[in-house]
Amino acid sequence: MKGYLIVELSGRKKDILLSIINLYIESGEPVSSKALSAYMDLGLSPATLRNEMSELCEMGYLEQPHTSAGRVPTSLGLKVYVNRLINKIELPYKLRLIIDSGLEEAASKPDRIPSIASQILADITGLPSLFTTQSNKSAFIKKLEFLPMSKKALLIVLITSDGTAKSRIIRTNMDLTHAVYERLENIINNDIIGEELAEFSQAFMQGLVAGTGEFGFPLLPILSAILEMINEIQESQININGESKLFDYFSNYKEVQSVKQLARLISEREAILSIIESLTKPIDVIFGEETSIDALKPSSMVVAKYKAGNKELGRLGVIGPTRMAYKQVIPSIEYLASRLSHLLTQAMKDMED
Questions:
Q1: Which class for 290: exposed (0-12), middle (13-18), buried (19 or more C-beta within 10 A)?
Q2: 111 near 167, Cβ under 8 Å?
Q3: Domain check: are 127 and 250 in the same one?
Q4: Spans in the chain with pLDDT lower than 70
Q5: Which terminal CB of the chain, N or C, has fewer other CB atoms within 10 Å?
Q6: Which stretches of 147-290 are DSSP H helices?
Q7: What is the CATH number of the domain that holds 243?
């Protein structure tokens, strides 16, 4: 928080701060010295606790919403709290089992694995979840394979040099004959494999179609779909699941008004994507007060990197109130991002074989 020098807290002050944060997360209400005294059971009088709380306010770790209210943590106080949780809490076996089971079902759909992981995260945390995909225009097409599904449909699987995979079932209005497939394979091998993603444009694909002669009509929807897949890979994207879950966390009128602002911001997405793209740590907690976006002020995000091999593919996380249950959220995201990375790495190796 601006204007404060971060000071190492004494053992007692740290215990008091963490207890206040635990109470605030549970209730969403400012914490009084009386409630804190009952919660901590250290034999300290409410007067002693009030003095300690006042000093924590002066240090920037707590604030008092109004004169007669208790205290609530600032983003600086919450940082102390979350830093004690990252890489330090093991996720309960039951939640690990839910995650592993859900991801196991997704293993056969590599391009949908991040989306499925995001849905699992929303379900176990009760918060809106998000995942991003990174743009890499310098990557090239490493593999492009097709599998006939019926007379008028085929499955296309595309893999780039950085391990990104996409698949799509394409349906046409014409029968896909052996001759059409031979022509498609020729185009893939001679004009697509090895080309950088940035080389593909509408004009490039139109040139390929124009050169196919009589095969132009059956190949047009296939080549158009391949271009769409390539364009999707080139764009940084953010996907958010479960926006309605925000209202489950906020109770009073002021909080509901805040969540309506946040819901509108989520619908725009670009502002959130710009924040996430600036992060560098394996796992980050971003407090809205530290951003320049007013609608994020009462909120925070917890996001972690996910990878395929050594290549970062994007971020996975949640967005919610600053009083979210970090003790569950942080280890859930850490474990899920780790398992997601393992699964994507294995999927990339399987596709390369």
A1: middle
A2: yes
A3: yes
A4: 1-8, 136-137, 246-265, 267-268, 351-353
A5: C
A6: 178-187, 202-210, 216-234, 253-268, 270-277
A7: 3.30.450.40
Q: Are residues 333 and 276 in the same domain?
A: yes
Angstrom CA distances, 87 to 90, 122, 162, stand at 8, 21, 28
* pLDDT for the residue numbered 256: 60
CATH number at residue 21: 1.10.10.10
Quick one: 266 and 334 in the same domain? yes
User: Same domain, yes or no, for 113 and 158?
Assistant: no
pLDDT on residue 268? 64
- Answer whether 141's CB lies under 8 Å from 322's CB: no
Regarding whether 250 and 123 lie in a shared domain, the answer is yes
Per DSSP (E only), the strands in 78-171 are: 129-133, 141-150, 153-160, 165-171
CA separation for the pair 32, 42 (Å, rounded): 16
pLDDT per residue as tens digits for the range 164-214: 778 899 999 989 999 999 999 999 999 999 999 888 988 988 899 888 888
Of 69, 78, 86, nearest to 25 by C-alpha is 78
Start-to-end CA distance of the chain, whole Å, equals: 51
Boundary-marking domain end, from 206, 234, 262: 234
Could you list the residue range(s) of the whole structural domain that residue 340 is in? Answer: 93-134+236-352
CB 88 within 8 A of CB 296: no
Hey, CA dihedral for 343, 345, 348, 353, is it positive or negative?
A: negative
DSSP string, 268-305: H-HHHHHHHHT--SSEEEEEGGGSS-GGGTTEEEEEEE
Whether the CA torsion 281, 348, 319, 72 is positive or negative: it is: negative
For residue 21, what are the contacts with CB-CB under 8 A and spacing of at least 6? Answer: 73, 77, 78, 81
pLDDT score of 353: 60
Q: Please tell me the predicted confidence (pLDDT) of residue 264.
A: 67
pLDDT digits (tens, 9 = 90+) for 314-323: 999 999 888 8
